[in-house]
Amino acid sequence: MSNSKKTTVKWFRRDDSDRFADRSIATSGADGSSSYPSAAPRSASAGRSASAPRARSLRLAAASLAGLIGIGAASFGAVSAQADEVAPSSASVSSRSLASVHGASVLTLDRPTPSGQSAKRGTSKAAQKRDLKATIQELVDAGYPGALAAKTDKDGNAVGATAGKGNLSTGEAPPLDGEVRIGSNTKTFVAVLIMKMVEEGKVKLDEPIETYLPGLIKGQGVDGKKITVRQLLQHTSGLPEIMLGMPDFFAMRNDYLSPRDVLDMALTRPAQFAPGAKFTYTNTNYIVLGLLAERVGKRPVAEQIEAKIIKPLGLKHTYMPGPGEKAFRGKHPHGYHTRDNKPGKLEDITEADPSWAWAAGSMISTPSELNKFMQSIFDGSLLNQASIAEMKKSVPMGDEGDVYGLGLIGHKLSCGVAWGHGGTIPGSQTDNAVGPDGAAAVIATTAIPATNAKDTAAEEAGGKRLGLQALDKALCGK
């Protein structure tokens, strides 16, 4: 733009040890435009040119974060006080041990049932499997390449299903309970990690982020002394989101971006509003929370999530990819995306570096393991009751009665409020929650709603996304 000035970012060090180091960020230009100097590659991208393509990848990444790992940039009203939880606590969920099984398109995932205890929930498992498959077949009929789903009752008994094609080139079906990118469900893992630190007395929810990351969170209208940990968890911080439009994501699929790259790009933009003034879904919040976790825990956030959540739950196919890790570790369907993030020709985007999403949306899991994690939040396996109550303290999202807690979304379904999250990242959409009766469900598709014409039309008409409709059917039977 004719009147814009460059925003320069001075990089003092170019390895991951500089996540907390001061970086000089001089901003100017009312339109928030920015340019980024070339930067030396990280170890994960050794050998990559550090000239103009690198600068371009940073700009593309900034644009991508706007909506590719979130549930939207919803903004709703003023937030003057924390609301109490909107529904009674989910029913107690017993310990579970779910096996990830690949192969058939519909299969029961069981654990031993105590003598005399029924494994049914009103209908036979065969009927549950048929219903689940029929539900996700509707998504394939609506134009999604493939879909996977799992439903786990409150006792840990699970059924799974797949539909469509897991590989458009070969016609192969999606693997049952295959690994998928879970996008913003990553936020819930990070939120649980932070709540564990709260329980340990290492973090206080209403303490300013400045206490834990001194001098780091600052910019145009941004003051880390006025933003609390709770506001970051709840998307009421006012931190700037990187919203520059949707680029050709394929051009940056091989690029590694450090958390500080992403944060610094965000902080070249002005604050969206004063801390606590309202809710606006902002991925930057969880980049900051990831840095907080690393500063307090003194270990990489991926390592902490593995040690404190993944291993204790016995999850085998849930992980945060390491630097430069583009491929899946286990069986998985292929993911597809379009060049302009709109309905159109789908192209394979399966292998991609998700580092730009990091603590806001880079993780991988399976439908059954994501169910187990979500149920474990509420059954006492991971957190105490005080922490669970804090996570359910919510603010309105403005989405048909949905509310946002601390890394949790309360979805208003036909059978009541279901707590979960959901995630969007190129090549994968997940809609998931734990229902009022303690049962959990995950609905995953191998492309995101923005690339699907019927889903786009449904949202434009003011209706729920097809994935949320499928989630309602899975949990409520309607």
Automatic annotation (TrEMBL):
Q: Which residues cross the membrane?
A: 58-79
According to the UniProt entry, its GO molecular function terms are: hydrolase activity
Its domain of life reads Bacteria
Spell out the Basic and acidic residues composition-biased ranges: 337-347
Give the span(s) annotated as Disordered. Answer: 22-52, 105-130, 328-347
Q: Which InterPro entries match?
A: AmpC-like, Beta-lactam-related, Beta-lactam/transpept-like
Tell me any Pfam family this protein matches.
Beta-lactamase
**Beta-lactamase-related domain sequence ranges:** 133-457
SUPFAM superfamilies this protein is in? beta-lactamase/transpeptidase-like (SSF56601)
Q: Where is the composition biased (Low complexity)?
A: 32-52
- Provide this UniProt record's keywords sorted from A to Z: Hydrolase, Membrane, Transmembrane, Transmembrane helix
Record's protein name: Serine hydrolase
- Taxon lineage: Bacteria, Bacillati, Actinomycetota, Actinomycetes, Actinomycetales
